[in-house]
Amino acid sequence: MPKIKTFYQCQSCGYTSPKWLGRCPDCGTWNSLVEERKEAVTRQSSFLTHLGKSEPQSLSSITGGYGQRTSTGMKELDRVLGSGVVTGSVILVGGDPGIGKSTLLLQALSGLSRYGRVLYVSGEESPEQIKIRAERLSINSNEIILLSETSLEGIINTASKLSPKIIVVDSIQTVYTEELVSAPGSVSQVRECAAKLMIFAKRSDIPVFLVGHVTKEGTIAGPRVLEHIVDTVLYFEGDRGHSYRILRTVKNRFGSTNEIGVFEMSDSGLIEVENPSELFLLERPLNVSGSTVVASLEGTRPLMVEIQSLVSQTNFGMPRRTTIGVDFNRVNLLVAVLEKRAGLHLGGMDIFVNVVGGLRIIEPAVDLGIIATIASSLKNIPIDPKTFVFGEAGLSGEIRAVTQAEARIKEASKIGFKRAVMPLGNSEKIKNNPGLEIIGVKDVEDCLEAVLT
After folding, report:
1. Could you tell me where the beta strands, DSSP code E, fall in 185-325?
2. Would you call 141 helix, strand, or coil by DSSP?
3. Are β-strands 291-298 and 321-324 bridged in parallel, bridged antiparallel, or unpaired?
4. Average pLDDT over residues 161-187
5. What is the pLDDT of residue 219?
6. Domain limits of the chain?
7. Cis bond upstream, residue 71 (ω within 30)
8. How buried is residue 79: exposed, middle or buried, by Cβ count under 10 Å (0-12/13-18/19+)?
9. Could you tell me the maximum CA-CA distance found in the chain, to the nearest angstrom?
10. How confident is the model over 100-155, as pLDDT tens digits?
11. Where do the H-state alpha helices sit in 299-433?
12. Where are the alpha helices (DSSP H) in 137-255?
């Protein structure tokens, strides 16, 4: 009998310790070390041997490969993946419980089933429960094969016999391999199962979608090594108070990162939003102070987003700073720039900044929008509703140029904006002006003069 070795492993970062600790020394998480067992002599994996071993090849002799992409039939999902699913790729989809991950993948399988047989593996739901969801989504295809299985060996054996075009595993935390004695969902099981599925996908050229649970901190449960194993990492985001859902690319070996796809959740499933700029500006209040529109860039897609702020006299000794959708530290930095370079008195003011629609924007080009909306709310002067802004602010108060200015202007022109306030470096290089009044600003004072007069 092989000897069993007992150790404790952190479920957040994978750190191992010979004894239990209340706090992980590596990542600092409390009560994350769980007892696991491992055989001293591991058994050799045999269920992947039928796929053969990889042989060395010269670069010039390799043809085809990852240039072959398959459309899912959902334009927003294809955009996020980089125009389709790459042959043999492994895609990890994470998101909060109930956000719509299973619905998204079931709708994607419906589109992919026109190319052949697809396999949906569920370790959390029975085939009858999946059938109920499929009926709600009006999906009924003989090419979609359902499998309720949690054993990795059983999943790969079934997939080898069926040879499907696509495999979906929902979720990776419920899958276990018999080669390990630890419980399903542990760091060892998640890492080993993901690695075996990755090997299977590469050798069989069958794309694999993995659904991952998300922790309270908003990251995919398990060690970060899981994100390093896969080719693409997608996060499905959304506010439960809104019907909009954002599918964001965090990692993509075959396309651009930070690309987003926009969906709207309805009773009949996820509906693609082809023009999200109009959707996010649909209920925008006009001629109200503290509101401005910013031309942001998410991946390759320009978006027109409304940023709102509220500046009011504080009732406490320490003024409050609250942000939703933008970086908190960035807003504090811009407030300091407004005080030092523009002479605004914000030290005794509560400041609240919000990105409308549940979006989260990390691009520095929204700096000009944050500055304009805070100054508008402080002085109670509305910004022209046909004016939009974009640009990055420096600590000296200068406004720096950003990328793809013409794409932002083109998107704003389609919606009906007439006036653009942007960095002077961008305005001097505009060649194709679609009939907009372009105002170039070199510092914060020029910006406030342009939007508040």
Report:
1. 208-212, 232-237, 244-252, 260-266, 269-272, 291-298, 301-313, 321-324
2. coil
3. unpaired
4. 89
5. 61
6. 4-39, 69-274, 279-451
7. no
8. buried
9. 83
10. 999 999 999 999 999 999 999 999 899 999 999 999 999 998 999 999 999 999 99
11. 328-341, 367-379, 405-415, 424-427
12. 152-162, 187-204, 225-229
Q: How far apart are CA 202 and CA 348, in angstroms?
A: 59
Token readout for 115 is 């190319």
CATH superfamily assigned to domain 69-274? P-loop containing nucleotide triphosphate hydrolases (3.40.50.300)
Q: How far apart are CA 299 and CA 305, in angstroms?
A: 15
Q: Give the integer Cα–Cα distance in Å for 270 and 145.
A: 21
CB 357 within 8 Å of CB 324: no
Q: What are the pLDDT digits (tens) for 51-109? A: 666 778 888 887 765 557 899 999 999 999 988 999 999 999 988 888 899 999 999 99
C-alpha dihedral sign at 277, 280, 283, 284: negative
Strands 301-313 and 349-355, how do they pair?
Answer: antiparallel
Q: Are 450 and 421 in contact (CB under 8 A)?
A: yes
Fold classified for 279-451 = Ribosomal Protein S5; domain 2 (3.30.230)
Of 187, 184, 175, 244, give the one whose Cα is nearest residue 211: 175
Phi/psi of residue 199, nearest 5 degrees:
-65, -45
- Asked whether 316 and 290 are in contact (CB, 8 A), the reply is no
Of 35-49, 243-257, 279-293, 361-375, the range with the lowest mean pLDDT is 35-49
Tokens 């994978």 belong to 14
Measuring CA to CA, how many Å separate 83 from each of 69, 78, 114? 7, 5, 17
pLDDT band at 42, cuts 50/70/90?
Answer: very low
* Beta-bridge partners for 296: 303
> Alpha-carbon distance 3 to 42, whole Å?
10
Token pair belonging to 323: 């942000």
User: What's the order of all strands across the beta sheet hosting 387-389?
Assistant: 321-324, 349-355, 301-313, 291-298, 387-389, 419-423, 437-441
**Percentage of residues in the chain with pLDDT exceeding 70?**
92
Tell me: pLDDT of 41 over 50. Answer: no
269-272/260-266 β-pairing = antiparallel
Task: List CB contacts of 172: < 8 A, sequence separation 6 or more.
Answer: 92, 190, 193, 194, 197, 210, 211, 212, 222, 226
Rounded to two decimals, what is the model's pTM? 0.80
